[in-house]
Amino acid sequence: MVKMMRVFVLNLLCLMLVGVNGSFAGETIVIKGSTTVLPVAQAAAEAYMRDHSDVNISLSGGGSGNGIKALIDKSTDIADTSRFIKSKEVGQAHEKGVYPVPHRIAIDAIVPIVHPQNPVSDLTIEQLSLIYQGKIKNWKEVGGRDLQIVVVSRDTSSGTYEVWEKKILHKAKVTPKAQMQASNGAVVQTVSKNKYAVGYIGLGYLNKSVKALKVNGIEATVATALSGTYPVARPLFMFTNGWPEGTVSDFINFVVGPEGQEIVKKEVYVPLY
Description:
The chain is of the alpha/beta class. It has helices at 2-25, 38-51, 64-72, 87-95, 125-133, 159-169, 184-192, 222-227, 246-256, 258-266, and strands spanning 27-33, 55-62, 78-81, 100-114, 122-123, 150-154, 179-181, 197-202, 211-212, 214-215, 233-241. β6, α6 and β7 (179-181) form a beta-alpha-beta unit.
């Protein structure tokens, strides 16, 4: 009898400890996807966790396609994307009982960049298209020095790549000689170290190590992206499986609310309002 009582007390203590540990562990939100959206998601997550000490937010990049794939596989709560979901992906999601819901969180401009010493400052959409197809091969053909152009592109899992493909290449193929990079940061690093290179990045990744080019004579800014005058702008999304509930819903409401949109602005993206 005494032995049974000891076992009961021990089990009770274990249950109490599990409850205590669970209350300290709190809730975890998993976010995966676009490296373009990542700076906004990261800054928003840090701000949200400061006010919600019981919530942990796990973040990783990898590209919009990988974010959508993780949503379909149910390995993420939120998929960050810099493009809209494809009909093929919707079909794959439905097969697994997943119903993707988009939440627009910001607007972005995709900016062509070159090395700071490159004298070229403006390219047309047609010139960019021909450069990325490998049909314009020398900078002198677009008003620059007599130097071979090194094309730097995002990889095909990137939402940024897909928007660039649609708006600049009009579905034409990128030259096989292009150096494919896995993130905006990698494109910046590659172009900053190569006087011959041209690349493209989200507006929020622009820094002094590279030079932004105008497109059709229009500079990429918050104002031109919001007004629609800059020709290579696109919305940014967070996707959830169905309409979000609980903490996930609260976090997305935070991102699209006044404080979250100030973070969007601070990260040099375009707020929704």
